[in-house]
Amino acid sequence: MKNIYSNIYKPTNINLNKAKIAIEKGDVxxxxxxxxxxxxxNAYNTKAVEKIFSLKKRPSNNPxxxxxxxxxxxxxxxxxxxxxxxxxxxxxxxPLTYVLKKKKSSKISKLxxxxxxxxxxxxPSEKNIIKLLNILKCPLAAPSANRSKSLSPTxxxxxxxxxxxxxxxxxxxxxxxxxxxxxxxxxxxxPKILREGGLCSEAIEKFLKIKLSENKxxxxxxxxxxxxxxxxxxxxxxxxxxxTKDGALIIFGNKNCNHNNTYNLTNKKxxxxxxxxxxxxxxxxxxxxxxxISVNKIPNKDLGKAINxxxxxxxxxx
Length: 318
Ligand code: AMP
Ligand code: MG
Description:
Blueprint: E1 8-9, H1 13-25, E2 29-31, E3 38-42, H2 46-56, E4 65-67, H3 71-77, E5 78-79, H4 82-91, E6 96-102, E7 118-122, H5 127-135, E8 140-141, H6 156-163, E9 170-171, E10 183-186, E11 192-195, H7 201-208, H8 218-221, E12 236-237, E13 248-251, E14 262-264, H9 271-287, E15 293-295, H10 304-314
Parallel strand pairs: 1-9, 4-7, 6-10, 12-15, 13-14, 13-15
Antiparallel strand pairs: 2-3, 3-8, 4-8, 5-6, 6-7, 10-11
The structure holds adenosine monophosphate (AMP) and magnesium ion (MG).
């Protein structure tokens, strides 16, 4: 029988070199990051970027995040500003994505940023993607390695669950340390959070000593941030204490977790732990064929904001 995991590769130097060759050829591969696993392609190569959209069945209005190895590489592609300089020194490498004006001289494929005048850039901290970026001459366009609208993958095996053998190479960096996507901040105007994510917006506010303005113009600024997303394919009910018949219950904190339909995101109400377990827990429940997911109220602060944003979109409350 064919080994379904034959496309998972350990992050050895030899395999990272194979990954480099694949990227240079215009292939799409899956890579670990500290947030979630990504489907990566040469950001300069339009044909390669196109493969990402078709593999994911990603709507054509949803631009990709460009993963760069360092600030110098970002400077080649984007017009930087004061807020960027402050934030990047403090929070990068890490789960913060900056939306900046795209430089006229940038070679990033227009398809990757959907022809917008801006691009979204990030410096990941996961050591294997950084090793790969360091041996490549191009940045990587990389959205999450899942079919569009579906659950984000936080292990190499999840990527196989999403794509089977249609991705030729998945670099296995183990379970993602953060477990939810990056926070996206628009720095082209007064700083504005476009998507809550792995770095809580309160930390950014505290550091910049400003109140971040709300994203009222969501549709235009961040086209991918509307509609159903992150979905396990079964109904999700938020702010519930009990599961429905044949449903599972996700709890937040140290409560009775003895039922075999009950899953605890964190024992000690720790937001980081909850975020790390979030997608994996939804995936376990989906794979066990429960009919619905009820979720305890999760405090809307710290990384709870990012978890609630994902739950709302998975339940498609707009
Ligand atoms: P994903 O790749 O699925 O993690 O999503 C990346 C998100 O970043 C997209 O859904 C967009 O909302 C946002 N994004 C990427 N590029 C831009 C951009 N140029 N302007 C505004 N938002 C962007
Ligand atoms: Mg995604």
